[in-house]
């Protein structure tokens, strides 16, 4: 085993003498590796600052938790918009839109920036002649008003008047049922009551009105429970 190692070392030295270019290439590779492994002065100073805290098990003093705190605040229940999450599936918009008071002036300003030939009556300006200008106008209005025209209504935007009519309509991310449930009986009849969210039965809910009735029903399979009297009766 030792004899073979010695032979290998000798032959490697002999070959390096015969082929000096191979030796030079290996030396260049070693230099490149060393350059990659060297640490810059800035990184070295940062490591020296972190070493005492790592040895003691404490966190670095310069660490800022503002980003983590901001993420936790956003993830809290108070800042989560549940209506926007529910509107993802079947509503056109996930957000509420209320038209501004100066809508026509904002549309006119956007038209002046995009279009060249402008009539006195901006509502009659045709948008079907140049699709590129139409796209630029729609993109500009969507960015400024934070409200975009859906794909299903793009073909209806033939004139600037159609755009003004579209942006003049308010939108909500609630269904008609949810709006009636949140109406607080202001416009609903007195004999009509609407629950927005369903009341789901859970057998282990001891604080509910049924008082964990499912567990007791298993004890009396031949009896029926009456919610009014809260007693079991024979079937």
UniProtKB/TrEMBL annotation:
Mention any one GO cellular component term assigned to this protein in its UniProt record.
mitochondrial large ribosomal subunit
Where does it localize? Mitochondrion
* Record keyword S-adenosyl-L-methionine present: no
InterPro entries in the record, alphabetically? Ribosomal_m50
State the UniProt keywords alphabetically.
Mitochondrion, Ribonucleoprotein, Ribosomal protein
Task: Name the domain of life.
Answer: Eukaryota
User: What is the similarity comment for this entry?
Assistant: Belongs to the mitochondrion-specific ribosomal protein mL50 family.
Q: What is this protein called?
A: Large ribosomal subunit protein mL50
Q: Which organism is it from?
A: Acanthocheilonema viteae (Filarial nematode worm)
């Amino acid at each position: 085993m030792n004899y073979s190692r010695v032979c290998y070392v000798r032959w490697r030295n002999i070959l390096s003498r015969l082929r000096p270019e191979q030796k030079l290439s290996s030396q260049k590779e070693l230099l490149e590796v060393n350059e990659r492994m060297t640490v810059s002065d800035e990184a070295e100073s940062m490591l020296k600052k972190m070493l005492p805290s790592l040895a003691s098990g404490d966190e670095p003093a310069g660490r800022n938790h503002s980003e983590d705190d901001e993420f936790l605040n956003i993830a809290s229940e108070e800042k989560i918009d549940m209506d926007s999450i529910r509107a993802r599936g079947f509503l056109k918009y996930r957000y509420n839109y209320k038209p501004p008071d100066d809508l026509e002036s904002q549309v006119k300003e956007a038209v002046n920036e995009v279009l060249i030939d402008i009539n006195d009556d901006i509502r009659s300006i045709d948008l079907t002649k140049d699709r590129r200008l139409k796209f630029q106008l729609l993109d500009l209005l969507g960015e400024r008003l934070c409200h975009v025209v859906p794909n299903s209504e793009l073909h209806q935007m033939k004139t600037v008047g159609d755009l003004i009519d579209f942006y003049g309509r308010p939108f909500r991310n609630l269904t008609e049922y949810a709006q009636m449930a949140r109406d607080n009986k202001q416009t609903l009849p007195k004999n009509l009551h609407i629950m927005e969210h369903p009341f789901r039965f859970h057998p282990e809910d001891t604080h509910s009105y049924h008082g964990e009735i499912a567990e007791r029903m298993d004890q009396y399979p031949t009896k029926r429970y009456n919610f009014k009297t809260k007693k079991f009766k024979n079937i």
